[in-house]
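agent> fetching stored inputs for the S-adenosylmethionine docking request
agent> found them:
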Amino acid sequence: MPPPVAHLPALLSGPNRAANSLLGPFDELLEDFLSKGGPLPREYGVLNRAIRHLGDAVRAGLIPAALLLEHIRALTERRLAGTMQAQALAKKYGYSGDFEMIDHIYVQKVNPDPGLRCWDLFFHAQAAPNAVRNRKRYFKNLVAEKLAGMPAGRRLDVLNVASGPARDLREVFQDNEAADIHVDCVDMEGHAISYARQLCAPWLDRIEFHQRNVLRHMPARGYDLAWSAGLFDYLGDRSFVHLLRAMLAVTRPGGEVVVGNFSDFNPSRDYMEMMGDWRLRHRSQETLTSLACQAGISPNRLRIFWEPEGVNYFLHARA
Ligand SMILES: C[S@@+](CC[C@H](N)C(=O)[O-])C[C@H]1O[C@@H](n2cnc3c(N)ncnc32)[C@H](O)[C@@H]1O
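agent> prediction call returned; pasting tokens
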């Protein structure tokens, strides 16, 4: 029998007494779910509300963020090792949303252990992982549209910035076996590139991988579509503007730059931050528009769309 959720000793006394009085009920709720093998779909609302209350308490300064994180880490190591939540906290490649994590979201990896399975199903039912899966569909639809609009005999040149596992690309090629497409993929993580090369092995004649930091180096072929998802939401505003400019500079006249960024509407933000220490720069449409203007894009060349969850925005800029 695993030990019950223990409060951190530091939380038990002194200025953290208030934090402890808020964490106590949360721990009891978690312990209840842990003892039953994780939350069931009908209980997701209860757990999500409790996590949001934790987020409110952190924002109100009632629970120190660092203490909460230490607490959640200890609990996860003890009781939830091998789950998606544990993987987010482990930051194997330096941050929560690495290529492996993203691919596990795409394939909806679930730990088969009956005591852990429900926790992974709870993870995958959150709005944010849904939005990640939706953006793969968004990319595939976008490429299909571009292909349909290409003049006969002209190749579609695509730049994929921060390509990660490239499962989106794999599915593009699976759906368009004979398509005349060339894709330059840039990612600075060697493991991501090896992984992506394996996933895309049958189509390596049409994909070139570049292991580079895109903030320093951008392939300059001239593209019909320059795409990036899962990177801009990690960048500060200056890097955002710099990278958007750089992508525009390598896009052909008439081509399009499309950049994903998590929106300011993300119902699972507290779950990501409190339970996974997964922090992104959530941006509003107004902020995205303002940053695009700073990158020299006039408003009439700019559109913002989103996937069905409304969690991942896509900034479209015509070159
Ligand atoms: C969240 S994943 C997104 C992967 C993919 N675009 C997707 O949506 O499936 C982010 C990827 O960006 C890469 N990355 C982060 N910073 C980068 C940089 N400065 N230059 C190149 N790649 C970077 C990481 O190695 C990781 O593979």
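agent> quick read of the result: The beta strands are 156-161, 181-187, 207-211, 223-228, 251-262, 302-306, 312-318.
agent> awaiting further instructions
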